[in-house]
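Incident review: delayed structure delivery

Summary: a single-chain prediction request sat in the queue longer than the usual turnaround. Root cause was a stuck worker, restarted by the on-call engineer. No data loss occurred. The affected request and its eventual output are reproduced below so the record is complete for anyone auditing the incident later.

Affected input:
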Amino acid sequence: MANTKRERMEDVSVAYVQALCAKNGYILERVGRDNDSVDVRISCTALPADDCLAYSPMLNVQLKATYGNFRQLNTGDYSFALPVKNYSDLIKVNRMIPIILVVLHMSEDENDWVIHHNDRLEIKKCAYWVSLKGKEPSDNEDTVNVRIPQNNILSCDKLKEIMTKIAKGEEL
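Output delivered after worker restart:
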């Protein structure tokens, strides 16, 4: 039996982040149990940049893939309906390893997700990231609408910038 649509969406979101890690020379590990709202862990085996303070920075990532729960606001930023459990985990301030939310905005049409050409492989649309560390707890029962800045596109350069900040001891 083939994977469900939801499972295939998750696999494409992992492939997206894996490609960014491969380009930067980082290691991506899938976390076996998502009890702590961590789907993948990214690590760098050295310094991500010359002016960093710490070797081997790590980043935890909660991955989401959606075509329906992602809408653009009047400001240009995006809103994503995140399950309350994930939100509560991601706002914690006392985590050993920093964590971000990554949302892959996908087309509803599965034929648009991954497209093969003779000279390239495309993952359509893109992923956005946000750190929710220190946000206020929510009394909502199901989801919390999370605001993601329109400029927070997760790219190769942005991932390197995030890892560099971690290695410098800076907030995301």
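Verification: The longest helix spans residues 5-24.
Action items: add queue-age alerting; document worker restart procedure.
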